[in-house]
Design brief:
- The chain is mainly α.
- The protein contains 14 helices and two strands.
- It is 68% helix and 1% strand.
- The radius of gyration is 23 Å and the shape is globular.
- This is ABC transporter permease.
- It comes from Natrinema salsiterrestre.
- Pfam families: BPD_transp_2.
- Keywords: Cell membrane, Membrane, Transmembrane, Transmembrane helix.
């Protein structure tokens, strides 16, 4: 049995990009099948007026309807009449996708460098607050209108990136110069970020016109604008320009990994740290630099959460950073794969709302259903990553000249 498991693990490690996609698709279908059975059986213990009667037992939940709402509801029910591309369901899906791309890239950069950044949530929190405060105070001296849009949005994103990067550099420095475990430090810094930002907010930046813990709103012209004619309504809190920026950043990180000396050193440090050190890579500098870049990406996610979704910083920041860990694992830490994984998460989160409004299925069961899909799809890639990190040296594949593994294509 042990030899069989080792053989399966080695097969996952050596799987090509196409094989990994096919495995994920097969896992998705398996999750749908298992989840459908779970939904159907759970319906037998629910109370309803109408349902499917089998052997004197009434089953209240229809798995087909649940999956219809989960996957097509997230797109705004495109098979129904009167469907429009700029509908609320699709806007919600793409909004979550955009934010999760930033969070997933943040985690993926650290993972590719051989580091476990569990602190993207904290970096997103401090970056979002820095963005809101910077834009609110800069708006007092920057002209409004088009000039304000052009100046304040990049300024806000830059502020979020700088502060998020600084916050990510802290565990990087502790790891590089104090040999502190980055998992522990980043987890602890998440709590520090929550407490410090709440204190700073109440001390200096609380909106005097609101009882809710939040900053003053940024000017309307400083929010991410919508594209004319083809853009979504401003009430949907989503902009195609934000998605375009996220995709461009995703491609840029992929190019950084594949075509630059920094990306080569980063990937080599993660795959073969001994070889990287032998080749002259400064391990301490790379640790700090990769964690700084990871934190900056998390801070950018916080900036877009402020400038696209709420127009202000709120104390109850959603768990985008923690979702980014699952997005990165599902994508195999590939920057391009992060986009597809983020879209799947966006569909599940948006579709879960559609299930809640279109069926009688309780939200707890919807959460289990979404969790099953994520678990089934992510586990093969998770075990592949474990195999890459912990398999015996004798089974390692030779490294390519670009720092990747032989027979394995990540981008």
């Amino acid at each position: 049995m042990r030899d069989r498991l080792a053989e399966v693990l080695d097969r996952l490690v050596g799987a090509s990009a196409l094989e990994r996609v096919l495995i994920s698709v097969a896992a998705l279908f398996a999750a749908v099948l298992v989840g459908g059975v779970l939904v159907f059986v759970s319906g037998g213990f629910a109370t309803c007026r109408t349902g499917l009667d089998l052997a004197g037992w009434t089953f209240c939940y229809n798995p087909m309807q649940v999956y219809y709402e989960l996957f097509l509801g997230a797109l705004g029910h495109p098979l129904e009449g009167g469907w429009q591309l700029t509908n609320f369901g699709l806007a919600t899906t793409l909004q979550r996708t955009t934010l999760l791309i930033f969070a997933g890239l943040s985690v993926a950069v650290a993972f590719r460098a051989g580091l476990l950044n569990i602190g993207t949530q904290g970096q997103l929190v401090v970056g979002g607050l820095a963005t809101a405060v910077t834009v609110v105070y800069a708006a007092a001296i920057v002209p409004g209108g088009f000039i304000g849009t052009v100046v304040l949005i990049p300024l806000g994103v830059f502020a979020g990136a700088v502060v998020g990067g600084f916050y990510g550099a802290i565990p990087g420095v502790l790891k590089a110069y104090g040999d502190a475990n980055e998992v522990i430090t980043t987890i602890m810094l998440n709590f520090v970020a929550t407490g410090v930002t709440a204190t700073i907010l109440s001390w200096q930046f609380q909106d005097p016109n609101s009882n809710n813990p939040q900053t003053r709103p940024v000017p309307e012209y400083a929010e991410i604008p919508n594209l004319p004619l083809i853009g979504f309504s401003g009430r949907m809190d989503f902009s195609l320009l934000a998605l375009a920026f996220a995709v461009a950043l995703m491609i840029g990180i992929a190019w950084l990994f594949a075509r630059t000396s920094f990306g080569y050193e980063l990937r080599t440090s993660g795959l073969q740290p001994e070889a990287a050190a032998y080749g002259g890579v400064d391990e301490r500098r790379m640790t700090v630099a990769s964690m700084t870049l990871s934190g900056a990406l998390g801070g950018i996610g916080g900036a877009f959460w402020v400038l696209m979704v709420h127009g202000r910083w709120l104390e109850n920041v959603p768990s985008l950073g923690f979702d980014g860990i699952a997005v990165s694992v599902l994508a195999g830490n590939s920057p391009v794969g992060v986009g597809a994984a983020a879209f799947l998460f966006g569909v599940l989160q948006s579709g879960s709302r559609s299930i809640g409004t279109g069926t009688d299925v309780p939200p707890e069961l919807v959460g289990i259903l979404s969790g099953l899909i994520i678990l089934f799809v992510a586990m093969p890639e998770f075990f592949r990553m474990l195999g890459l990190r912990f398999r015996p040296a004798g089974t390692s594949q030779p490294a390519r000249a670009d720092g990747g593994e032989g027979g394995d294509v990540d981008e």
